[in-house]
Amino acid sequence: MKITGQGPVSWNRVRAAYQQPADVKGQGGVDKAFAGADTVQLSAGSKLIRELKARLEEVNDTRAGRVEAIRAALAAGTYKISLEEVAAAILKEMGR
Q: Using an 8 Å Cβ cutoff, are 33 and 17 in contact?
């Protein structure tokens, strides 16, 4: 992210702007010296991240068929868990 402009707010400048006579100020009572002084530019990387995030939100990573099969097996009382397979999966996840 790149921010350009006048830098940190100088409260003395702000106070001076509001103490000026009305005819010196621009439309709406805003000092002309402050109008358009700061800009924000987002990098190409931030745009890419935003696009990738939007794409990921569209992806459904739930395997509906597998979930329904497990629900049915649980409801029927036929879902069996292999302790060896669970332990192997845990160790695999830990990188062992």
A: yes
Predicted local confidence at residue 61, as pLDDT: 75
**Beta strand extents in 1-96 (DSSP E only):** 2-4, 39-41
* Cα–Cα distance, 89 to 96 (Å, whole number): 10
Length of the chain: 96
Alpha-carbon torsion 7, 12, 18, 22, what sign? negative
Residue ranges per domain, the chain? 43-95
Q: Under a CB-based contact definition with an 8 Å cutoff, are residues 38 and 6 in contact?
A: yes
pTM of this prediction? Answer: 0.31
Lowest mean pLDDT among 26-30, 50-54, 63-67, 92-96: 26-30
- Phi, psi dihedral angles at 40 (to 5 degrees): -125, 130
